[in-house]
Automatic annotation (TrEMBL):
Entry keyword Membrane: yes
Membrane-spanning residues: 12-30, 50-69, 321-340
Keywords tagged on the record: Membrane, Transmembrane, Transmembrane helix
Name of this protein: Lipopolysaccharide biosynthesis protein
GO cellular component, one term: plasma membrane
Domain of life: Bacteria
The keyword Repeat appears for this protein: no
GO MF terms, alphabetically ordered: protein tyrosine kinase activity
PANTHER family: FERRIC ENTEROBACTIN TRANSPORT PROTEIN FEPE, TYROSINE-PROTEIN KINASE
Length: 352
């Protein structure tokens, strides 16, 4: 083997050098690629001022959306890779012309290949790297991803406080409408001495407490049914708890209905419905104000740590690395060829 390589040492040296030089020359024909880099900080999911107050809701918290986001970094990356954001960037930088493509779907694919994201697991930082032949356009596109993320996130409730604020705002408005209707119905029912004797306030407060519990338990059951199978112990336990609350509520309703007659009974039922709606409205109003307070404390949703600037040096092609790789590969090929040729020649000599 050593004899075979020594006999052809000139080729083993010349060919790799020539191939490496050719590869180096080819790299100068490839347009250089520049990589711009920007970094921003994830929104901080701070301790909520309403955390203790939320416990009073019990099962109703299941409707808020699961509390704080488990993987906020991945969610923000997914937003920046969404069609909404990509199409906006494609139009802003005229990328269909830049990438020389006819269809928008091909421009999205090319943009996806040229944009890379990194999510810090410990420091809550997200990095955006954009490759482009123009260093200024690469920097502008990297910054545009953060700007588009600002725009998109302003349209959605992503943080825990925003989710709670949006949820309680809707619930409070709905409860306010039902409370107004219950109040009008109560005012039109009238009352009498016998209606007062049944102590409607105490009965209504008990009824409101039970019906609120039924509403909360039913809300939690609906939330659990979306993620759990029908025969799981947690789901069966929640169904049993809801059935118990409904049975107790039915018992109170039957007891209250038997305590009055005619207009008295109508007044009691309307009064307890009014108290129920009043309890719900007060509950949602308190939680809405606490959520607004938490949301105001969050400050800026996205904070840019390092703004992208036009890179001064290209990121690829790496000319030296390409030339060395081509020379080494051709060197191994030539060495293998020399050994095979020497073995064939030796075999022919032995045959003769």
């Amino acid at each position: 083997m050593t004899v075979a390589l020594a006999a052809r040492w000139q080729r083993l040296v010349t060919v790799p050098v020539v191939v490496g030089a050719c590869a180096l020359g080819v790299t100068y024909l490839i347009p250089p690629t520049f990589t711009a880099h920007t970094v921003f900080l994830l929104p901080q999911q701070q301790q909520s001022a309403a955390a203790s107050a939320l416990a009073a809701l019990g099962p109703l918290t299941g409707l808020i959306g699961g509390g704080a986001l488990r993987t906020p970094g991945d969610q923000y990356v997914a937003l920046m890779q969404s069609v909404n954001v990509q199409d906006s960037i494609i139009d802003k930088f005229d990328l269909m012309r830049v990438y020389d493509v006819k269809y928008r779907v091909h421009a999205r694919k090319e943009l996806t290949n040229n944009v890379h994201f990194t999510v810090g697991k410990k420091d809550n930082l997200i990095g955006v790297d954009v490759d482009d032949n123009d260093p200024k356009r690469a920097a502008d596109m990297a910054n545009a991803h953060v700007e588009e993320l600002h725009r998109v996130t302003s349209q959605f409730a992503l943080t825990e406080a925003q989710q709670r604020r949006a949820f309680f705002e809707g619930q409070m408005l709905a409860a306010k409408g039902r409370l107004t209707q219950a109040q009008i119905a109560l005012q039109g029912s009238g009352f009498s001495q016998s209606a007062i004797k049944v102590e409607p306030k105490a009965a209504a407060e008990e009824y409101a407490r039970l019906k609120t519990g039924v509403t909360a338990a039913d809300a939690k059951l609906q939330a659990m049914q979306k993620v759990l199978m029908g025969n799981t112990p947690e789901l069966l336990q929640q169904q049993a708890a809801l059935a118990t609350l409904r049975a107790e509520l039915a018992r109170v309703e039957q007891r209250d209905d038997s305590s009055g007659r005619g207009a008295d009974s109508s007044y009691v039922s309307k009064y307890r419905e009014f108290k129920y709606q009043e309890t719900l409205f007060d509950l949602f109003a308190r939680q809405y104000e606490l959520a607004r307070l938490d949301e105001s404390r969050e400050g800026t949703l996205i904070q840019v740590v390092d703004k992208a600037t036009p890179p001064e040096l290209k990121s690829r092609p790496k000319r030296t690395l390409v030339a060395l790789a081509a020379a080494l590969i051709s060197g191994f090929v030539m060495a293998a060829w020399a050994i095979v040729a020497h073995m064939r020649l030796t075999k022919q000599i032995q045959t003769l």
